[in-house]
Structures are given as C-alpha cells and as structure tokens.
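Sequence only, no structure available. Ideas?
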Amino acid sequence: MGSEVSSEQLVSDFPKYGRKPEYFGDESPQHLVEISNPFQMSKTEITVAQFRQFVDETGYQSESEQDGTGAWGFDSENKKCYGRDPKFSWQSTGYEQLPNSPVVNVTWNDCTAYCQWLSKKWNRVVRLPTEAEWEYACRAGSRSYFGPGINIDNLSQKARTLTPTDANIRDAIQDLTIDNSSDGYFPVAVGSFAPNAFGLHDMIGNVWEWTADWHDIEYYSHSPVVDPNGPKQGAVKVRRGGGWNSFPLWARASFRNWNSPDTRCLNLGFRIVAEFSDLEIAEYEKSRPIQILFVGDVMLDNGPGNVVANGKDPFERCANLLNDADLTIGNLECVLGRGGEMILKNYSFRGATGSELYLKKYFDAVSLANNHAFDFGPDGLQECINILSANEIGHFGAGDWHDSREGLVLKCKERTILFLGYNEFRASDYQPSDKHIGVAPLVEQTVLEDIASAKATGEYDYIIPYVHWGDEMVSMPLESHRQLARKMIDAGASAIIGSHPHVTQTIDYYRGSPIVYSLGNFVFDYYPVDPPLWTGWTVRLEMHPDGRIDLETTAVEMDPAGIPYPVKP
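Reply:
I predicted one. Tokens follow.
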C-alpha cells in the first residue's frame, strides 16, 4: 500500500505539474498490509437512483439541504462550476443527471447515513471502505500507477478523467471553462468503462470516492499491518480515485486527497462495502484451499547464530515466501536456551539467544523430531519446549511417550490439521523413556498405529507426518522409505514431508497424496565436508476442500553464513 515509486520519481514522471517531492509525502513509505476478513464492494459508485431510494424511504435531507448553504453546481451561462449555493444539491447540479449517474454533492455524513440505512435494510454491516480496502480493490493485483491495463497514455480512454494541456494542467474545478456540449466533462453513467480485474468499475476517475479513514500525513509510517483503519481522530477524511476533472497525477491508485466531512462537490461521491456475517465468513473459509508452507532443516547455531547474535533477521530474504501461506512449518535442528549437558557426538547445535523471536515472526510450528533436538539431553530439550511454548510457537514430535506421539493440532479455515513428527536417525538413543523425555522414534508399527487411530476419530481433515529419515547427502530415497510412505497414506495420512539428508530428494504421488522425501536445508551453516553451496526446497501444499492437493516448490540457496534466499526462476 502506498506509492510504488519515490517522491522524487513522481516529480520526474510528472514534470509539468510543478510539484515538489514533499507534496507526495503522505503516500510513503510503501508498506505491506493484510486485510484479514473478506468483504464485498459495490461494483459501481452509488447512483442518483440508489440515493433517491434512500431519501424516499427515510425522508432524509442531505447536509446541503439541512444547513441551507447548498452545494456546488454548474452555471451554463458562465461556463463555470461554483459553490456553495442553496439552489444546488445532490439532485440539482446544473448539468444533466441520469438515474445511473453517480450521486455527487454528498458529504461524508450523508454517505454514512446511507450506509446505516442499508445496514438495517440488508441486516448486515454496510459502511464506507477503509483506505486499505479501497486501494486493494483499485489495484486489483497490480502495482502500476492506475491499476491493471491502464497507463498514462490510455488513461482518458479507460477512465473518465481529463487529458492535461499546458493551459489547464493546474486548473481546479472552479477554474475550468466548460462548454456544455464539450465531451469529457462531468460524470458519465456508472459502468460506462470496462471493469478492473476484480470486476469493479470506475475505481479511477468519474468521481472521487469518500473512504472511512481520517487523514494523517504520517500515518503510513506507523500504521498497523493487519486491517489498518486510519487514525482514531482527525480534521479531514480521505477521498480516493480522482474525478472527472482530474488529471493523471491525481488519479493514481496511491494518491491520497482529503476534505472536511461536511464537504460537498460536483466531483465527489462514494461506493460502499458490506461485511460478511461470521457464518458467511466460516462458509467462505471452508470453500478456500489451505496453503501450508514446509521448509527443511533450520539450524540457528554457528554462522546463522552469529547473524542472530548481531541482531539481524536470518529469514529476512525469504520473508515474503514465509509469510505467503496460511501456515508455515519447519524442522528445528537445534535446541533453544542455555540448559542441559552436551551429548557426546560429532555436531551439537544450540540456537543463539533470541532465535525464538525470529521463529515466532515466521513460523506457526516446528518439528522437534530430529537427531539434534536431544543435543543437550532431556533437560536441554525440555527448556527448548518451554521456550517455544512461552513464545506460542507450535511444536510436535518430542516430549514423553504420549506427548511425542500425540502431534500438534492446528485449525485453519474451519478445518483441522494434525501434524505428527518422527525421527529415524539413532532413534533408540533419543526416544523417550520412563525416566526422561525424548524424540518420537520412526518405528513403522507405531507410526501406522498413530495415523490410523487419528484417522478413525474423524476429528482431523488432514494428517501430515513430518519424518526425519534418509541417508545424508543422498539425493534419492531408500526403497524402504518409499514403501513406508505408501503405507502411511494407506493408514490415513494426507501428505508426507521429509528431512535429514541435507539435500533435496525426489517427490512421489500415491493415491493423489504428495510424498516429499527430503526438503534439504533451509538455514544451515557450512562445514569442511559440505558441498560448496547448500540448496533446498520450500514446498507449498494447497489443500482443497474436495480433497485435491496441489504442490509447488521454490528453490532456496544459502549464503556463506548459511542464510537462505530464494532462487530466481
């Protein structure tokens, strides 16, 4: 959200307008925004006929009629627009209005009253869009100035705006000389131009559109990521999209303009959004696929640990990849915390202090079912579990005999997913005992019993084992693992995810279920026996309500410190 280019670039791209960089200051910085709930938006701006229905049913008087100061209008004799004048209102503008013309001369308060009426009529929340909702709808997946398929050269053919000339480029609405027969002035009927990619008409041009938000020039620098709805108070409300008298500079998707709530003008109207009920949202969520992103071995000691110790984010270069999923799951190949006694082995990994903060930022859960979760014995593993729990990071595959096999249940989009974790490498050395906790061992009979028992309960929509198996540095799975994976699917598993070999292995499908034998590394340091470049996969599973599972891989490489970055296709 916000300008896709710098203020200096805007000055360069629109030189004739004579604007300085600070003029565009409230469009920056561009920032990521998440709209967490679905919403409906009117396909067009609210029309004269629609507003008239509201007035007829309620007896409402617009603010221009209530306060007696009137609104703006067009004087055909002088060929000028002027205001305010009591003879002008939403239904008297001085130019021809059709029933399907966008209503204008409505204040922010008039629009709010309309929304309140419609809320009662429809028995749902109807309101003005937030700025974030408006810009999302306008852009329709595009990052260009005007939305998909529109540029400066074709803007006047795609939207009701003015083409600037040297003579009029700085003219406000009251400065324009308008021959009533001239083409290009005043709003056109809604829907006269083709819709954008979201099916919405006239997001650019025709009339400016009120939004719900107060304006603050500094708001973008501190606005929340999730569902921003503007400052809590202010003096002026934001309007967006440009109008029939706007030149390209002011019709951009990111441009922010504002007026006091009692403003009424010939180029200012609105459109509405309607919220879904909780039941509708639940039904909508059920209809959508769940996207689960799996990454391989995450080791936050040594090189990656030094990155964390220096206050840097080891996942930063993969942030968009990690955040672009409903759930993100990894294999944590180190312990967290400072407790426990080191087990005698070739490699023991302890994550740098503060690693949990970065894990919490990106991961919904991690598997502890691996050969490094026990590097500092049961006390080290217990402290790691405690740290993960304190930071609300889900974990599975470790604990006592019961907990290590119970798995982790996560809910997403009205569905329930069970994650199970098992370790094969030196399984008997790290498994739980009557005296201490440990890591769930990969024992065929036990694994198949766990999956079949979970399936029999009918409580889980998906069951996904994350298994730590295979020979290190070998790019193909063992035949025994191929057979076990099929047995797990026969028992009720929806998909199989594997790790441990440090390199990627092949992917199979069995009865429509994917089997990813090894994801390779995701965050991992280099040692003398290692290859010159670590390469791994992230795998995105798209779980459809009809049972279909789509799979997408993205390759990552690790820099000399073991920090991942996506490989450009």
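The longest helix spans residues 108-122.
Hope that gets you unstuck.
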